[in-house]
Amino acid sequence: MKLDKTDKQLLRLLQQNAEWSLNELADAVNLTTTPCWKRLKKLEEIGVIQKRVALLDPEKLGLNFTAYVMLKTSNHSHEWYVRFVEIASEFPEVMEFYRMAGEYDYMMKVVVKDMRCFDEFYKQLVNRVEGLSDVTSTFAMESLKYTTELPLS
User: What is the pTM of this model?
Assistant: First the structure.
């Protein structure tokens, strides 16, 4: 789907603040409300806008510990993969989960309260997933940049 300049303007505005009213959005992109609403509906229908959410501050919720978990496996069967994704997706601590190219097969971003909570998560994960040959974790000392805003050219 090809996005025009107005679609991209709407998306930029919504990425910065999803609470804009329809009237405010329409004014900002020089449309009336009906065409603006139709564009937003189209962007939702085709999946460009997946959902609108509130972004929470992890530190204010006591979730001060971010770990990046790198995993290797010797089992690359489809059945193992499906089961692994299913198990990993059950953990609410797993914020992001990727299949990787390179030295490690998978990577998770895990957000928890502290090291003790991470250790609990780690033990549960390795006890539930058979076939992991290496699990390595690194820990974020400080968040230097965090954004959910995608670059729109």
Answer: 0.88
